[in-house]
Design a protein that fits this description.
It is a single chain. The protein has 381 residues and is an alpha/beta fold. The chain folds into 2 domains: 21-183 and 354-366, 3-Layer(aba) Sandwich (Rossmann fold), CATH 3.40.50.720; 186-349, Dihydrodipicolinate Reductase, domain 2, CATH 3.30.360.10. Helices cover 26% and strands 20% of the residues. The chain is built from 12 helices and 14 strands. The chain has helices at residues 51-61, 81-84, 104-109, 124-131, 133-136, 167-170, 185-199, 228-231, 247-258, 291-301, 319-322, 351-366, and strands spanning 41-46, 66-72, 97-99, 115-118, 141-144, 163-164, 179-181, 203-213, 236-237, 264-270, 277-285, 308-310, 328-335, 340-347. Strand 12 (308-310), helix 11 and strand 13 (328-335) form a beta-alpha-beta unit. Helix 7 runs parallel beside helix 9. It is globular, with a radius of gyration of 20 Å.
Length: 381
């Protein structure tokens, strides 16, 4: 496969590193370079003014293998990057240029970046790529954080087909990929919560999923329902049943893992917190499974996953424990004589549910250690 402009060569292994807190941290040392190898990739972030775009930029600036070259934003083009990234100290890092999205074609042609991370609202990347087919068909790597290509396929303007980028479930197809569709935050939590049960053939449909989400999951554009006065002091249900756009994604994942169709009912709930997802999944089991057997299966499945932690019996996930980390905490048991699965998950929707997972996928694309530059520890206060 031909390397794109300014690309790196493959380094290290795409296999998961050993589990444990020390296996994945923002201060992970750089892997040793072999003679002639380049250690950096040059990244442009499209949609850099949104929450996921800013979060990716923050993580990328701390990643020793990434040069953050371009922030693309219509609203902030031409302004200092420090204004776009208010949490960043410009004295400590070299900040990129802030450009109009339409400038990306020329910047790519001039070798300014070789990887494009799209952090746009759903549907927007398809539109931008249609307007600028040189981006869609370019040799640059593309990671799309929207739902535009999660069902697979390539953009009509050209380019490679998109692969679904949930490493813990589908890692083997992601190494060396040119196009990755980042999973949604709800489907990431739901799939990780149900993955061992699905792979073991335990699940009988339908599966019922409910989840509390922080308001950042709705994006940064102002809206009445996500304003402080409307949200503070309560929680609300929206798009309950099967109408939420993430239901087909959950069903595709479970079918791919289980080998047969599994219907999902979903109750998303908006909670008065900035970030985080707390998810509960219930399913009837095809055979009785004891709580001990269920937990042992989850421990075995996630033994080598640095970003999935199975909690001790009687301990349940909480969003604050995973805040600002790329970790998903799980707890599992069975009820009703082992005939009902109860699986729960917590993750940060902006990190493991978006930007952190995109960086995890980028590490896989480049053959770098998968946990390189990613935080495993939460920031509960």
């Amino acid at each position: 496969m031909t390397a794109p402009l300014g690309s790196t060569t493959t380094l290290g292994s795409s296999s998961a590193p050993a589990s444990g807190a020390g296996a994945a941290s923002a201060s992970s040392p750089a892997p040793p370079a072999r003679a002639g190898e380049r250690m950096t990739t040059k990244v442009a972030v499209l949609g850099a003014s949104g929450y996921s775009g800013q979060e990716f930029a923050r993580l990328a600036l701390g990643h020793p293998g990434i040069k953050l070259s371009v922030l693309a934003s219509r609203e902030h083009a031409g302004r200092p990057a420090a204004e776009l990234l208010p949490g960043i100290d410009p004295r400590a890092v070299t900040l990129p240029i802030v450009a109009e999205p339409k400038a990306l074609v020329d910047l790519l042609a001039n070798g300014i970046f070789d990887t494009l991370v799209c952090c746009l609202p759903h549907g927007a990347w398809k539109t931008v790529a249609a307007e600028h087919p040189a981006l869609a068909a370019s040799p640059a790597r593309v990671i799309d954080l929207s739902s535009d290509f999660r069902a697979g396929g390539a953009h009509p303007a050209g380019g490679d087909a998109y692969l679904y980028g949930l490493p813990e479930a589908f890692r083997t197809v992601l190494s060396g990929a040119r196009r990755i569709a980042n999973p949604g935050c709800y489907p990431t939590a739901a799939t990780l919560a149900l993955l061992p049960a699905a792979e073991n053939g335990w699940l009988e449909e339908p599966v019922m999923v409910s989840a509390l989400s922080g308001v950042s999951g709705a994006g940064r554009s102002p809206a009445l329902k996500t304003s402080f006065v409307e949200l503070e002091g309560g929680a609300s249900i929206y798009k309950a049943g099967s109408e939420h756009q993430h239901v087909p994604e959950m069903e595709r994942n479970l079918e791919r893992l289980a080998g047969s169709a599994i219907a999902v009912g979903f109750v998303p709930q908006l909670a008065p917190m900035a970030r985080g997802i707390l998810l509960t999944a219930n399913a009837k089991l095809a055979r009785p499974v004891t709580p001990e057997e269920a937990r042992a299966a989850y421990l075995a499945r996630y033994e080598s996953e640095p970003f999935v932690r199975v909690l001790e019996p009687g301990v349940w996930p909480e969003t604050r424990a995973v805040k600002a980390s790329n970790r998903c905490d799980l707890a599992v048991t069975t009820l009703h004589g082992g005939r009902t699965l109860l699986a729960t998950a917590a993750l940060d929707n902006l990190v493991k549910g978006a930007a952190g997972q995109a960086l995890q996928n980028l590490n896989l694309m480049l053959g770098w250690p998968e946990s390189w530059g990613l935080p495993v520890h939460g920031s509960p206060w």
